[in-house]
Amino acid sequence: MSDVSLPSPPEARTAAVIPAAGRGVRLGPGAPKALRALNGTPMLIHAVRAMAASRAVSLVVVVAPPDGAAEVKTLLDAHALPDRTDFVVVPGGDSRQESVKYGLDALPPGIDIVLVHDAARPLVPVDTVDAVIEAVRDGAPAVVPALPLADTVKEVEPAAVAGEVEPVVATPERARLRAVQTPQGFDRETLLRAHETVTDDVTDDASMVEQLGVRVVVVPGHEEAFKVTRPLDLVLAEAVLARRRLNDGF
Ligand code: CTP
Ligand code: MG
């Protein structure tokens, strides 16, 4: 009898790189976003726990704010984390892309699958993490979790001056669009090649792999994997945590 809950091959080793070096400008003044608390625990710790919750993840590389690596190490030591997972902290860079690259540079040999997960998505459920890993194990070189859109999306000619009207250029068919989340999962060699080759500014790692001409596939994302970007997102994140605490009580 085969155990369908165990992805194969089990010997593939997985690491998660967590870019956490951003300032969080859109969240407003305060500490770097990843270090802000959600229900008393730093967002970064929630994100680290979300990755370490997957039994497949043996290493978590945290990319800290450039001047905050020591503080992040102290935080990791101060919070309960699974014993089966190793943790490494490296300083980040000026862009997300650069921060991810520094995280990849810290990967030891023997890692076959790499997840890249935003610290700003602290509440992604472990089932989503496992679904991404499983799709990579099943042979996809690049996997992104994503959801259909609620809003209709317009392409515009961006205004030169903020506040001016913007002409609509096109309305892509909503049913064909997906909002992309993290963790994005990759065959290690493919992701390294993407980061060595692509120099354009991008907002996610999968788009670098797309530029190599390598096929990227989507698996279902999760509502709770939303990105904490603006102040209202903090309210939503704390509400999700409160709901989880209630449900755990039963
Ligand atoms: N990130 C990073 N290094 C940077 C910029 C961003 O590691 N130089 C990380 C952030 O810490 C975050 C993830 O990339 O976990 C996604 O970025 P975003 O949500 O844009 O976070 P910030 O850049 O911090 O926020 P903002 O753009 O509002 O300043
Ligand atoms: Mg940013």
TrEMBL record:
Check the record and name the PROSITE patterns matching this protein.
Answer: ISPD (PS01295)
Pathway(s) this gene product operates in, as recorded in its UniProt entry = Isoprenoid biosynthesis; isopentenyl diphosphate biosynthesis via DXP pathway; isopentenyl diphosphate from 1-deoxy-D-xylulose 5-phosphate: step 2/6
Top EC class for this record: transferase
Residues with site note (Positions MEP for the nucleophilic attack): 174, 227
Task: Locate the coiled-coil region(s) and give their ranges.
Answer: none
Which reactions appear under catalytic activity for this entry?
2-C-methyl-D-erythritol 4-phosphate + CTP + H(+) = 4-CDP-2-C-methyl-D-erythritol + diphosphate
Q: Does the keyword Transferase apply?
A: yes
EC assignment: 2.7.7.60
What InterPro entries does the entry give? IspD, IspD/TarI, IspD/TarI_cytidylyltransf_bact, ISPD_synthase_CS, Nucleotide-diphossugar_trans
Q: Where is this site: Transition state stabilizer?
A: 26, 33
- Which keywords accompany this UniProt record? Isoprene biosynthesis, Nucleotidyltransferase, Transferase
Q: Kindly list the biological process annotations in GO that this record carries.
A: isopentenyl diphosphate biosynthetic process, methylerythritol 4-phosphate pathway
Q: Which GO terms describe its molecular function?
A: 2-C-methyl-D-erythritol 4-phosphate cytidylyltransferase activity
Residue span of the signal peptide, if any? none
Q: What family does this belong to?
A: Belongs to the IspD/TarI cytidylyltransferase family. IspD subfamily.
What NCBIfam families does the entry give? ispD (TIGR00453)
Function field: Catalyzes the formation of 4-diphosphocytidyl-2-C-methyl-D-erythritol from CTP and 2-C-methyl-D-erythritol 4-phosphate (MEP).
Protein name from the UniProt record: 2-C-methyl-D-erythritol 4-phosphate cytidylyltransferase
What gene is this protein translated from?
ispD
